[in-house]
Design goal:
Number of strands of chain A: 11
Number of helices of chain A: 5
Strand order of the largest sheet of chain A: 2-1-6-5-3-4
Structural class of chain A: alpha+beta
Oligomer: homohexamer
């Protein structure tokens, strides 16, 4: 399940704040909120046969996430869609593509935690790559991680943010144990999600999934329920 | 207490992965772990009269933090010190300077959470700015935030990492209430620290500070105790 | 939203344990359980056009609350209703009235926590005042308080009791921040209620409210669901 | 251990807000914060041989408690001491006396939780009674209550307040089980205190007591440690 | 409700690992996992009029429990049913019988916690006794225990295991208080179950029971809901 | 670190309730509390050169554990020591021996949780085996288990009991991951102990170990501190 470098991505064009550049020239400022504190929200989109899967739902969640973090301004769906379109066109991509769409709080005038230092609008990053499905259809192996999902009074799991260290630590445990991914529990010890995605339990004639208390409101999750 | 832009910083030279460039050209890759997940550790250093305050302690904590996050390689103190020296020299800075020293897990070969995608070493960012002390000597006003510090089974508070959203949300509460900073509690409801620094309680003849269970092991904290 | 003194209430008649007196002569004993430990239950009633809104439901909740606190005896609905009627008649009140109906565990034979020291029955207090609706129809502003609702193993939130300090502390935080009221979270960090009332979340086509785990079973709450 | 009515207390004089009256005439207003929400702090004092045991420490704790609850004004030690003196003189009491000293947030202009409705200063209540020591020297029996002490984010246990319902519920459990008092645990399940007092554990050559995280800072507790 | 010794059980035949012996000769090895760590699962069955009540459901739960504890092998329903049949036949029992059916992880080659030391299959114990219903139809008295149900991250309450000390401690509290059984709470302070069985709350026209988060999935529980 | 069967133990004599038998005949009753609920306490002793290491401390802890579980009677140190002596003599063991010393609540008159069904005294089991040290001097590898130590309100970790399922589940996680043992956290997420022993942290010039809140009071632990 370890992703490999795909040669087709060697010369992709990346969009950072509207600037389209070769991936090796793409520049996020060290003053950007994402670099300074993971202060960003994001969505993973898939382009299949010229269409982005459930784009509307993803943009709605991106907007809810950004608002929950009190971003001053958030681009409209039309503006974001146009940037995605420009980026895909620059790469002549139409199928089999994964897009890492990131919206950061923007560039700060000086290093610091205070959002009032963000005096220019948010930074939109469109990162498209040719990428086959990450999970095999044959299933994956999971460990239960000792790392827990953050409780809602630390960081609401409904926000799809870029503070991923808890999940990365869980993923490292899975790597060490030779498993594909890690199941993560909430603070009370109940199953929440894996380090990367929602989890469903299918038994004879029934389907169950954790309530969305310690896991994101997955787009697919809503569809299944 | 809101920091202002300092004109002396308009043309500073920034060091990203050894490349010294004007701040406006400084480029962190969108594939960098810091951008993708706040997957980085950092220290705030102060240069005073040609010397960096407690550099050895700060580098030791940076190293402990990086190891706790299982960074594959960490540059030596000598290597880091040399990069700091080069950067300060390029700016001809000798006094009144704050350095945001960041070490990210490095650049990924493709978007994704898995640290095994980080196939090139960590990224060191040296960001020096002229900056007066942030806190006034006359004291600051605090609110108690409703946002709690993450518990150790989510993200060990002893790691000085760049997943700052909890603290940023607390800071936003302080801003809204018109206070300078926010006191943050741990999961049990005890005082942990402010959104930005350790907290001490001085009463007649005694000095107290929270045990380091939900707050970083501040350099100054160790000195005071 | 700060209530003002209403001149019509200057000479109201108050009922304490059946004695009808001018408000300035109304006497609760310092040996009363309410004074000693907030050891009382209460309801807020509204008299509109000669009728008390949902009186039956309020008296049922008052009774459940008193029983949950193991009050030895609780007056019947008829007895309580008669005392309310006498009090309203003494004040010639028929409309626009709020009644603070309190039932304490009664007067103790000596200071102390032990309910066995309450050797005379409960004390019923009927406190009617002319009072316009407290909340403006245009909505209110809320902060999220750092003070949490008590967990059920400390004091069951389904009991409508007179130990209001947690709520008062949350209200003080709201006052300091210039907001109308404060949203309070439960021990896990989920929204419970405001310091004064149940909270509902209305989004397009749906209505949600916290489960009654850390908030009272509001009379209106039951109606809405 | 059940206290009995002491005939010497039948005609004691009680002090409510400076008014000295027979106990049967003592009048706390139903608008008083103590009646409405247990919104008061208190101390239990003992008069022995003309002197009040550790009066200074008790008044200091009363003041700390009132300040933690943000009472607008608190009488000085001198003012409180003078009211105690007047009350004892009126009763000609010099020995074997317990004083329930209560300071409420004061009388509200109208029913309601908001402290801004308390437009006249705090109410001081001095309630002196002849009372032998409550606990027998031969020891007491304890059960462990299922009721827990409130966590610090609900109501700081260091505040010696009059929201006693948790303790009263624990005492009821002890009564039902035929024990003298109840041991109470904190939220994590560790011993905190009894429903009425600090607890110490004396083993061969050592003495232990819970850290003051979920119990008041007992005056005697500080002396013993 | 205290069970008495029933003379009809003086010479019953017990089945341990397939060996049928008089109860006084029945031998569980001190190397057995049940003896060393309560490392076993069990079911309580009732034989009524020649039939075992809901045997299929009980065996399914036994199997789920054993699998959740990672027992290497679990006998088939047919094998277990045959051992039960043999044991009942040896005792000529057909009615009014309670069977304690236990499946341990088996006998270890040496003392120790490691399941890899269990190199011979699980041990099945069939313990049939004449036993009238334990609970009177007239109802039972309950206290609320101070002992809590283990949280799911210690030991999943859905596993019907033989680590009964928490429940035994709760039962001791009930015995001391003179009650029949004890109500047990979960870690948050909500009602979970009694020390021995699921609990239902029947009010006018409604029936409620705790969600199966801190209590076993009772066979009867599923039927009632 | 997986223990192997030691041929010298093939014919050891085991002591169950005073009866000395070959290990294959040793018989613990299926009515014994250990079998029914892991309702037992135990100590691991080491015989070296004719002497048992810290026997007095181990017996004192065994007694404290049994009392904390409210065992009706506990044999004296002399009685226990004599049973150990008899068993060692029957095996002619003098060195390199590990003794699993177990004290159960005894044999019940009928299946059931109630300790009042234990009408005959406790059962002492002395299980001596030749056993080299389990841990290599070169160190062991640890994972951090997702299984937590029980909180004190479920089962006090200071009791050295035989409800080992939490630890066994953690050990299984270690086995699956290929590690020697598992580090276990307490409910708050702090390090408690391994599944089998206390843990110490040795850094330059200092030694640390968790406070004994979620781990047994190890005999060695006390010596080191």
């Amino acid at each position: 399940m370890l992703q490999q470098f795909d040669e087709r991505n060697r010369d992709i064009i990346v969009n950072v704040a509207g600037r389209l550049t070769h991936r090796d020239q793409a520049a996020v400022s060290p003053f950007d909120s994402a670099v300074q504190g993971g202060d960003a929200v994001w969505e993973g989109l898939r382009l299949h046969d010229g269409r982005i899967f459930r784009l509307t739902e993803h943009l709605a969640r991106l907007r809810r996430s950004a608002r929950a973090l009190a971003f001053e301004t958030v681009p409209t769906d039309e503006e974001i869609t146009e940037e995605i379109r420009r980026t895909l066109a620059a790469n002549a991509m139409t199928d089999g593509v994964h897009i890492r769409l990131t919206l950061t709080r923007g560039v700060k005038v000086t290093s610091g935690m205070d959002p009032r230092l963000n005096q220019s609008g948010p930074t939109l990053i469109v990162l498209p790559e040719y990428k086959p499905p990450v999970y095999a259809a044959t299933g994956i192996t999971l460990i239960t991680s000792s790392v827990r999902r953050p409780p809602p009074d630390c960081l609401d799991p409904k926000i799809h943010h870029a503070n991923l260290l808890s999940s990365i630590l869980a993923k490292i445990e899975a790597n060490v144990a030779g498993a594909d991914d890690a199941l993560m529990l909430d603070q009370r010890g109940f199953v929440a999600e894996t380090n990367a995605t929602n989890v469903f339990c299918a038994t004879a004639g029934a389907r169950a999934t954790p309530t969305a208390t310690a896991c994101p409101e997955g787009i697919k999750r809503v569809r299944v329920l």
